[in-house]
Amino acid sequence: MRASMTGLMPVLSFPSMGLRIVRVADPVELGRIAADLVVETLGARGSAAFVAATGATPMPVYADLAARARDGSFDASTLRAFQLDEYVGISRTDRRSLTAWFDRSVAAPLGIDDERAVRFDGMADLVEGCRRYDAVAAGGLDLAILGLGPNGHLGFNEPPTGPRAPTRVVHLTPASVRSNARYWGSEDDVPRRAITAGMAQLLSAGRVLLLVTGPHKRDILDAVLHGPVSDDVPASHLRRHPDVVVIADVAALPP
Ligand code: F6R
């Protein structure tokens, strides 16, 4: 069964007017339901724009969308895809760069060519890269597909970050360094600076999809949904957004 905002199942609660929560059994179901929502949000709008997180959580969504692109049920080739963030000083030819990850999990499988992909370059003029990103994003973002950091970050909007923070260079907090060590081999190898799409840009998206899986995200998801809306938990600012769908598995959101 396909999900839609009219038939979405099972919506659990509404901690704020614009926020819906969907609990799923596991990452596979998360992938299917989130992909349904992506198609619903972007599918009928040929030139729609979306921000795509990397990290482990959204990978089942992109795999599901790629399968739909292959069987012809979803044409993403006219969409514009924005990378969410990148480490400073890492070349896109390094497969651990978020650009390389974005390319192999989003741009290539969905057939989004270079003209329609908005990327960061962690080796180039960073200030100019941020300025250019925000200029293009100002044309309108229809959807942001996001994961949740262990410290409540969205992208690399590390705590404390307010809702108006622009795209910029940031220093990673120890919590982000620790959680990204699995992608780098050790904490020492994780770059300490990154470029991130700003909170302002993410909150400007017409719809935000926040994807959360695993027991290690349980406490931070609880803080996002039920704690104070605070710069100390940047994702809590989503509660002031008019259209957010949180899709979480039972490990992150126990019954
Ligand atoms: C990824 C990103 C991060 C991750 C978050 C969760 O581009 O910007 O905010 O979405 O750290 O990471 P995973 O999904 O690996 O647990």
If you had to describe this structure to a student in words, what would you say it looks like?
This protein has helices at 27-42, 59-71, 98-110, 126-137, 174-184, 199-203, 218-226, and strands at residues 19-24, 49-52, 80-83, 85-87, 117-118, 143-147, 168-171, 193-196, 207-212, 244-249. It is α/β, with parallel strands linked by helices and 255 residues long. It has one domain (19-249): Rossmann fold, CATH 3.40.50. The strands form 2 sheets. A 7-stranded parallel β-sheet has the order 1-10-9-6-2-3-5. A 3-stranded antiparallel β-sheet has the order 4-8-7. Residues 53-57, 84-85, 98, 147-149, 153-156 line the site of fructose -6-phosphate.
Descriptors:
3-stranded antiparallel β-sheet; binds fructose -6-phosphate; alpha/beta; 31% helix; 10 strands; 7-stranded parallel β-sheet
Number of strands: 10
Measured on Cα atoms, how large is the radius of gyration? 17 Å
Sheet having the most strands = 7 strands, parallel
| Secondary-structure element order, N to C | EHEHEEHEHEEHEHEHE
Q: What is the CATH C-level name?
A: Alpha Beta
Mean pLDDT: 93
CATH architecture: 3-Layer(aba) Sandwich
Query: Span between N and C termini?
Result: 22 Å
Structural class, judged by helices and strands?
A: alpha/beta
CATH topology-level name: Rossmann fold
**What overall form do the CA principal axes indicate?**
globular
User: Would you identify the regions where 5 or more consecutive residues have pLDDT less than 50?
Assistant: none
Which strand order does the major sheet show? Answer: 1-10-9-6-2-3-5
Bound molecules: fructose -6-phosphate
Report the sheet-strand fraction: 15-25%
Number of helices: 7
> Helicity, in percent?
25-40%
How many structural domains in the coordinates? 1
